[in-house]
Amino acid sequence: MAKFKRFEDIIMWQLARELCKKLHPLTKREPWRNDFRFKSQAESSSGSVMDNIAEGFERGGNKEFANFLRIARGSCGELKSQVIRALDKEYITREECKELYNLAGRISMGLKSLIDELNNSDKKGPNYPKKK
User: How many domains is the chain built from?
Assistant: First the structure.
């Protein structure tokens, strides 16, 4: 398994950051920017992906990290649903929906792989030493 020194080194975190950067200007456009609750939900779920990867990494244990990655993965699913809703509300184009949906899906699959690696690792992190 790859070792990371900082959460910023994790490719899924980098992709989640890119997802946030792609979503934000779309939520600034009319009419999405005036749908305050929906705008907040979409921006929160996209930010949650990045933030949970970072928080889990900083906790220092593989079990906790994997748990936070599962939460981040759930946020990817939430965002995928929200971009479909944005398309249905005609806030974004079909192409914008596809781009965001596919990026969130790519992140979700990468997180699943990382979770599997953490769960199968002999090293459990300093907070969770391997039982003898």
Answer: 1
Looking at beta carbons, which pairs linking 7-10 to residues 24 or more positions away fall under 8 Å?
7/53, 7/54, 7/57, 7/58, 10/53, 10/57, 10/114
CA 110 centroid distance within chain: 10
Domain that holds residue 99: 11-119
| Single-letter code of the amino acid located at 30 | E
Dump strand ranges (E) for the chain.
Answer: none
State the CATH number of the domain containing residue 48.
1.20.1440.60
* Inside any domain, residue 93: yes
Is residue 128, in this structure, part of any structural domain at all? no
pLDDT, tens digit (0-9, with 9 covering 90-100), for 123-132: 655 444 445 4
The answer to whether residue 2 is domain-embedded is: no
Regarding pTM above 0.70, the answer is yes
Q: Which residues of the chain have a pLDDT value below 70? A: 1-2, 123-132
